[in-house]
Amino acid sequence: MPPAKLTGILTVLIPEIIAKIIAQNNISEYQAMEQFYQSKLYSLLSAEKTGLWHYSASKLAEMFFTEKASGQIEFPEESA
């Protein structure tokens, strides 16, 4: 189980990501949740050490769509 601080962040991010999945794919909330929770991205997002939780819901949704299309997660490049 993620630490309390991460759980709080995920409580805000995940509904936004799910809404973007629903809108882009025109699927039910249940289907969107099932797809997201079974993704590699969700697994990484829920691990505090990955730091993925600091990305916006839009960026995370984009990463989800890329994973769904290619099977790969593309991590954004950090600007220096």
List strands and helices in order, with pairings.
Layout: H1 4-25, H2 29-37, H3 40-45, H4 57-70
Helix pairs in contact: 1-2, 1-4
Could you describe the 3D structure shown?
- The structure is a single chain.
- This protein has 80 residues and is mostly helical.
- It has one domain.
- The protein contains 4 helices and no strands.
- Helix 1 packs across helix 2.
Quick overview:
The protein is 64% helix and 0% strand. It is mainly α and 80 residues long.
Strand content: under 5%
Largest sheet: none
Query: What's the alpha carbon Rg, rounded to whole Å?
Result: 12 Å
Annotation field: number of helices: 4
Shape: globular
Order of helices and strands: HHHH
- Average pLDDT over all residues: 90
Q: Which regions are unreliable across 5 or more consecutive residues at pLDDT < 50?
A: none
Please report the total strand number as a whole number.
0
Structural class: mainly alpha
The separation of the N and C termini measures: 32 Å
The domain count comes to 1
Structural features:
80 residues; mainly alpha; 64% helix
